[in-house]
UniProtKB/TrEMBL annotation:
This is Uncharacterized protein.
């Protein structure tokens, strides 16, 4: 693996803080406890994908992630 690829696959401490803040805010928007939310991992993956796509404002990331999570929850409830 080249160093350049490795650097693309790692996050700085500041990156983690942005994603953590986004996760906490998204849980707040969803009315869920970030510690016990059953889909916390799925929400985290959504946040990481948004971050990997270039988003850096934790509030924007949180809003988009919460919306996507709400849509996924509705779809899951509809089909199951």
């Amino acid at each position: 693996m080249s160093l350049h690829l490795f650097e693309k696959l790692t996050y700085s401490e500041d990156d983690w803080y942005i994603m953590q803040d986004a996760h906490l805010k998204a849980c707040e928007l969803l009315g869920e406890d970030p510690v016990s939310y059953e889909n916390a991992d799925r929400l985290a993956r959504i946040i990481m994908n948004l971050f990997d796509g270039g988003a850096r404002d934790f509030q924007i990331i949180a809003s988009i992630a919460a919306h996507r999570e709400a849509v996924l929850d509705r779809q899951w409830a509809t089909y199951h």
